[in-house]
Amino acid sequence: MPDVMSSSRLIGVGVGPGDPELVTVKGVNALRAADVVVVPVMDSGERGRAEATVLHYVGAEKVVRVVFALNERSDRGRREAAWDAAGARVAELLRGHGTVAFATIGDPNVYSTFTYLAQTIAELVPEAAVETVPGITAMQDLAARSGAVLTEGTEPLTLVPVTAGAEALKDALSGPGTVVAYKFGRQAEAVVAALRETGRIEDAVWGSALGLDEESIRPAAELDGTPLPYLSTLIAPPRRDGGRGGKL
Length: 248
What we know:
The protein is α/β, with parallel strands linked by helices.
């Protein structure tokens, strides 16, 4: 009988920003080939985007819901305890199965819960192999749906989680290239102010619930500072006055 422990694998699978059609073929194959698929849920128990997307491709009997403190920032002790508990649960699954997939919205290497899980598993089950399957990010989806161009020529691209504070976003907006902001719904007023102060608001675009029934995509100039959904995405391109290829 093969040693499950020595051959176990944890695979972080990026399942995109919400639209089930934006899961890669490799991602779908990884979900279907896994023995179990773990999906992160908040302690409220509501179904998240990752779980909803996964259920388009695998049966519910294969899905294991594991609670994470996904939005907990104020209480570090509670957050750490939730990560430890989640890691212990996934470690238990790895000890009983050959391959465990963990579904995460977007990409598993971009501001993903999977990063913390992988670190925990490396300590609890060091013999398990850890892999990732890349996923489509919200900024890519918003760019496609809105027509915004993320980068041209030699322009840099800066990604800022506004959970780091509106000042970090303002600093980025004061620099060159396109700025993308994530997770800023609660600080929408400060984000709009930063866009106006830096002269970036006219060409900026905002979106949330991309690919879902409640999708909303609007010019940032229409935002009035009212709080927005937590998983909001903003693209603020630089001014491009050089014509075609002007940034080459």
